[in-house]
């Protein structure tokens, strides 16, 4: 048997974050569309050969959505390793090729992902630090004007800061309101408000 009769495919499952690595024979790949599922069952890499092109649908760890990438069948079946990158993060999201280099590339990617997650943990982990800061200080100004109240008539409230939003809770009736703090337009939205009313459910 010639060496390139099998290809190794790899990605990281966005749901359980484990590396999923599988081998498929060239025959299997050419015969029909292939799915390489994560053992957790929540994601799958899909490979479809269409003549001289190969289409891959890759679950992306960073975007938590699928990317569709394509390359030539010749490269897909013969290159030592092919790396497909996520356009949003610039990081690789999928590898295809020979077993050893794919395993090596996957190990490097797992290390990079670990590092990113550690860094995010250390930074306090807001989606956008600046937006969160601005939205919080706008909220503080409204609070200083005594502008925060609940539909139930209460003026006692609690606040919880999340990764990309802030939750306001009424201390009396428990009603909640989520204020997004992810993008610049979230700053604009809260900027022009004099009061905040926590609506009951
Ligand atoms: Zn999984
Ligand atoms: Zn992505
Ligand atoms: Zn209330």
Question: Mind explaining what this structure looks like?
Answer:
This protein folds into 2 domains: 3-122, no CATH class; 129-198, no CATH class. It is 30% helix and 36% strand. The mean pLDDT is 90. It is elongated and about 70 Å long. The chain has helices spanning 26-31, 73-78, 99-122, 129-144, 184-191; strands at 6-12, 19-25, 34-37, 44-50, 53-59, 66-72, 81-85, 92-97, 148-150, 157-161, 165-170, 176-180, 196-198. It contains 5 helices and 13 strands. A 4-stranded antiparallel sheet has the order 2-1-8-7. The chain has a 4-stranded antiparallel sheet with strand order 3-4-5-6. A 3-stranded antiparallel sheet has the order 10-11-12, with no helix packed on it. It has 201 residues and is of the alpha+beta class.
What portion of the residues fall into strands of 2 or more residues? 35-45%
Number of domains: 2
Low-confidence stretches: none
Q: Please give the count of helices.
A: 5
Structural class designation: alpha+beta
Rg, Å, rounded: 24 Å
User: How would a textbook summarize the main sheet?
Assistant: 4 strands, antiparallel
